[in-house]
Automatic annotation (TrEMBL):
Compartment annotation: Cell membrane
Keyword Transmembrane helix (UniProt): yes
Keywords: Cell membrane, Cell shape, Membrane, Transmembrane, Transmembrane helix
Biological processes per GO annotation: regulation of cell shape
Protein name: Rod shape-determining protein MreD
Pfam family, one: MreD
Species this protein is from: Gemmatirosa kalamazoonensis
Regions that span the bilayer: 6-23, 92-111, 131-153
Keyword Membrane attached: yes
Length: 162
């Protein structure tokens, strides 16, 4: 990746992180858009798996700093999601909107499952309801937002790698 392309991806990453901490709290939805997952997925597919896992760990750790009761859960979830995204980049980057939506959906749902299980706050029927109702809804909203952002940021991000 050239320096210019790397800079554009870094700017998109920063913009998505800013959206996560500014727009997301204002919306206050039960199934919120997870701009951090979108940001990590967009960058992870442009990195090697090990570096992507480190990026996911750092972003997850930074987001965990705001929730000390579940400290480490976000770092674990983001690390695994970023690693898998980087590893699967050859499958993902076909410039297919439906495939991109599925990629964002699975990434968000995987993150939620890892986060909820590792934080151990919810148990029994509450955990099942969160994993089978609210997490898929949040993953759907995140996937739709991710595809929309991909379409809007296409001039900035340029051609997808692969």
């Amino acid at each position: 990746m050239s320096f210019g392309a790397g800079l554009r991806v870094a700017l998109a990453f920063v913009a998505l992180v800013l959206l996560h901490y500014t727009l997301r709290p204002l919306l206050g939805w039960r199934a919120p858009i997870d701009f951090l997952v979108i940001a990590v997925l967009l960058v992870a597919v442009r990195m090697r798996p090990g570096l992507a896992a480190v990026l996911g760990f750092i972003i997850g750790l930074a987001s965990d700093a705001l929730t000390p009761s579940a400290f480490g859960s976000g770092a674990l979830g983001m690390s695994v999601v970023a690693y898998l995204a980087s590893w699967l980049k050859a499958v993902f980057f076909a410039d297919n909107i439906a495939l991109s939506a599925m990629f964002f959906f699975v990434g968000k749902w995987t993150f939620d499952a890892l986060y909820l299980v590792s934080e151990r706050r919810l148990q029994g029927p509450e955990l099942v309801m969160q994993l089978l109702l609210w997490s898929p809804l949040a993953a759907t909203v995140t996937a739709l937002s991710g595809v929309l952002l991909l379409l809007l940021l296409r001039p900035l991000l340029g051609r997808s790698p692969g």
